[in-house]
Amino acid sequence: MCELLDAEIEDTKFSIVGPGWVKTKIHQETIAAGTKAGDNLQKTKTRLAENAFTSMEDVLASCDWIINAPREIVGGRNFSTAFDLWGSKELDDELKNNYDMYKLRRHGNNFKNRNG
Q1: Alpha carbon 2 to chain centroid, angstroms
Q2: Is beta strand 78-80 parallel, antiparallel or unpaired with respect to 16-18?
Q3: What residue spans define the domains of the chain?
């Protein structure tokens, strides 16, 4: 839907932001669910123990980047705050040259990310 809206409503940018693991109270619900949470119980416990979360500062910065970036760069695309090199000239240039990259079907997932 993001791609369709972006293509059909030319005076508006539509993008998706996947923030990654953000430290919010929702994780307490996973802990409270216990074994009903399945594999997510241990994943959540590990994240909490290691304090391994995407910072809210990064989430807001990635949203600011999307708001301020040209439509040709961010329109109709799906961004990961935790992994994509949002805000970098390198990614901007790649997105300008690859219309399909980071569309919901996630073409271009082999491009460099924040983990190397």
Answers
A1: 14
A2: parallel
A3: 1-19+54-111, 21-53
pLDDT in tens, the chain (116 residues): 899 899 899 999 999 999 999 999 999 999 999 999 999 999 999 999 999 999 999 999 999 999 999 999 999 999 999 999 999 999 999 999 998 899 876 555 667 777 76
Phi, psi of 112 (to 5 degrees): -50, 145
**Which residues, other chains included, contact 101 with Cβ-Cβ below 8 Å and sequence gap of 6+?**
77, 94, 95, 107, 108, 111
Beta bridge partners of 107: 101
Q: How far apart are CA 6 and CA 103, in angstroms?
A: 11
